[in-house]
Amino acid sequence: MKKSHFPEGFLWGGATAANQLEGAYNEGGKGLSIFDMVAFVPKEERGHEIEMDVRSEAELEALLAGNGSDNFPKRRGIDFYHRYKEDIALFAEMGFKTFRMSISWPRIFPNGDETVPNEEGLAFYDRVFDELQKHGIEPLVTLSHYELPLHLVQKYNGWTDRRLVEYFVHYAETVFNRYKDKVKYWLTFNEINVSTISPYIGSGILVDRVENREQAVYQALHHQFVASARAVKACHEIIPGALIGCMLARMETYAETCSPDDVLAALEEDQKNLFFTDVQVRGYYPSYMNRYFEENDIKIDMLPGDEEILLQHPVDFLSFSYYMTMVSSGSPDKMKEKGNFFSGIPNPYLEASDWGWQIDPKGLRITLKKMYDRYQVPLFIVENGLGAYDKVEEDGSIQDDYRIDYMSAHIEQMGEAIKDGVEVMGYTSWGCIDLISAGTSEMSKRYGFIYVDQDDYGNGTLERKKKKSFDWYKNVIATNGAEL
């Protein structure tokens, strides 16, 4: 066997989110979440665009009344709520060291602003953590993964209201106290920067209720930064020895050419992406954002003590999702083109997935090196994977060699970064079992090593079936990344 460059104890595993996995949206005392209101829109009607925002109060009221759609895929997920033992047994068979999952806030506090938690919700996660422990799998738990209770949107317009800081901290302290003997790895907010492109999903904001969208988004983000720092403080006090991190949707950006205009544009895009981790890891607002705030009429309302809280309670590690890289130009006309999930210019040197996400394994090594140079804290890749159409062959097999190729190339580059001296804690592939897509609510966009028999409309047996990549990843873990 080849020698592995991955450290002993490296946390191999897979990643999921409650809203894409659990189902049972109206069982066990759970309240509605923001994602429960996102309806399915067929691909031919939206192209490559994301389709997950609810933009107005009227739209939300119509959805609540049942007007416009009866297909809300995130309400059904893949029924992990009832099948978690079967699924965890499959993760254990692959050899998972860790399983990234989220707790659904409205399963614990159905409205989000209650004082007393829902015991049925707490007991469900007790059972999940006990099952993971039985198989020797460490849970990595995200506190807020696009799971804001819908009531907090309706009553407070989400994170625009400072009161959500207290509600979130109460929720965090409740689950820290409950699971302090079962969970030692935590994340605060999933892909915290997504609020800038999807205010509803990232921060629970209905944009028709605010005057200045940018002002509302960055004020909401300030409240999340404070809530995150206070959750870090609470975690360290309640669970000594626990580690708690932040989570970023990483968008490494290249300059289109060596023109200084393009290089400057790429640098500024990179800074806008890393602003969030600058605050959560370094503990203060970076000076380069002052001009952006001024030019966009943004004034952050800070309370006395906010800056001290941010500075005194930074995260222990930085986690991020990595799916693609971006290309930026100094020409505004070129930047109107679409090439990726966010926006940008297509990179002629890269191939793209079925959903237009450009595939760049070497970009992962680049971003690992740059982020470690910048922060000097442990890094954790908590999402990476290929969304693709999978075909069940006549013999029942799923020959997903394209997924193996994608992941092998990315893991190889992660190993190169580790050889370069980057401290990487672990790797959890996104959607280790097929689940509902966050951006498009599709089931047909599959990421998993495990196939789930369900289509975009909820038809199917929900039978679990191993893909070819299942045994491949099992061997990757068994050899600690030495055999790809």
Automatic annotation (TrEMBL):
One of its GO terms (biological process) is carbohydrate catabolic process. GO terms for molecular function: beta-glucosidase activity. The active site is at 383 (nucleophile). InterPro entries: GH (IPR017853), GH_1_N_CS (IPR033132), Glyco_hydro_1 (IPR001360), Glyco_hydro_1_AS (IPR018120). The keyword Hydrolase applies. Pfam families: Glyco_hydro_1. GO terms for cellular component: cytosol. It comes from the Bacteria. Keywords: Glycosidase, Hydrolase. Belongs to the glycosyl hydrolase 1 family. NCBIfam families: PRK09589.1, PRK09593.1, PRK09852.1. PANTHER family: 6-PHOSPHO-BETA-GLUCOSIDASE ASCB-RELATED, GLYCOSYL HYDROLASE. This is Glycoside hydrolase family 1 protein.
